[in-house]
């Protein structure tokens, strides 16, 4: 599958299946593993390793679109050929199904399922993404804000970036690494372990994002993030002075963390909603 082109929605799938083309190829599986459950297990395992690397050695960047793409590339470079690339389909609004969180409380078993839309691929998506990252720059990367103002800006940015949904798969995992890094350079801590599978806050977070997509309001997402954003207790270089903003070049695989630095565990995001 080396050199495959992705122009339409069907191009992302192994021919005749609904399984994404992947790099786990063999002579009998030239487009990659065709078993969805097996692919999901391998993808999650590899992505967790790459996310643990990023937790210790973040991708350098300017918190712009190139920076987000570099993060996505690092996480999924072993799995998908299109890692780090903006999705090219569908050219109509992409949708996902989830229970109705607008007219029902999150977790209500009586809530019917409904569809939630994302941006269509193409120039509209690209322009919207570039605009959102430019807003981060214009707000000085959210530095120097009191907590309430910071959480509000974080929620507004995250809600809009998620609705844009730049990548075919792996948006949320990339967003978590991006915004965790952004929080740290602004002097705040965001603990992604609070959003792992089985944690009550995970469902609140997912419901809040879908609410944002349906209503255009990020107030619920702000309420969720308010529960997990805390002052960064450990001084890190560049937080109170100049953020670590170097030009993001071609994303390359990172080495393992230096000896003696502990890996953070707990990035247990399930693939289904992410």
Helix and strand arrangement:
Elements: H1 36-56, H2 65-76, E1 95-99, E2 113-117, H3 123-138, H4 147-164, H5 171-185, E3 188-190, H6 200-215, H7 219-226, E4 229-231
Antiparallel strand pairs: 1-2, 3-4
Written description of the protein model:
The structure is a single chain. The protein has 274 residues and is mostly helical. The chain has helices at residues 36-56, 65-76, 123-138, 147-164, 171-185, 200-215, 219-226; strands spanning 95-99, 113-117, 188-190, 229-231. The strands form two sheets. Strands 1-2 form a two-stranded antiparallel sheet. The protein has a two-stranded antiparallel sheet with strand order 3-4. α6 (200-215) runs antiparallel to α7.
CATH architecture of the domain at 60-231: Orthogonal Bundle
Strand arrangement in the largest pleated sheet: 1-2
- CATH topology (level 3) name of the domain at 60-231: Fic-like fold
Instruction: Report helical residue fraction.
Output: 25-40%
Strand segment count = 4
Class of secondary structure makeup: mainly alpha
Give the class-level CATH name of the domain at 60-231.
Mainly Alpha
């Amino acid at each position: 599958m080396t050199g495959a082109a992705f122009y339409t929605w069907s191009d992302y799938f192994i021919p005749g299946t609904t399984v994404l083309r992947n790099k786990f190829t063999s002579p009998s599986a030239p487009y990659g593993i065709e078993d969805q459950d097996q692919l999901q297990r391998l993808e999650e395992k590899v992505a967790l390793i790459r996310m643990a690397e990023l937790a210790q050695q973040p991708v350098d960047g300017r918190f712009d679109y190139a920076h987000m793409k570099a993060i996505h590339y690092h996480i999924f470079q072993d799995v998908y050929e299109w890692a780090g690339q903006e999705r090219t389909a569908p050219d109509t609004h992409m949708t996902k199904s989830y229970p109705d969180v607008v007219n029902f409380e999150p977790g209500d078993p009586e809530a019917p399922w409904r569809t939630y839309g994302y941006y269509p691929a193409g120039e509209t998506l690209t322009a919207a993404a570039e605009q959102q990252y430019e807003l981060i720059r214009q707000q000085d990367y959210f530095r120097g804000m009191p907590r309430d103002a910071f959480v509000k800006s974080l929620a507004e940015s995250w809600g809009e970036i998620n609705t844009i949904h730049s990548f075919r798969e792996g948006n949320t995992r990339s967003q978590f690494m991006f915004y965790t890094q952004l929080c740290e350079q602004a002097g705040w801590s965001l603990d992604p372990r609070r959003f792992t599978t089985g944690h009550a806050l995970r469902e609140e977070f997912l419901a809040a994002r879908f609410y944002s997509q349906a209503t255009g309001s990020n107030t619920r997402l702000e309420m969720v993030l308010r529960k997990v954003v805390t002052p960064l207790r450990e001084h890190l270089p560049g937080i109170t002075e100049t953020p670590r903003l170097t030009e993001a070049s071609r994303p390359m695989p990172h080495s393992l963390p230096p000896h003696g630095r502990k890996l953070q565990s707990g990035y247990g995001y399930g693939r289904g909603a992410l």
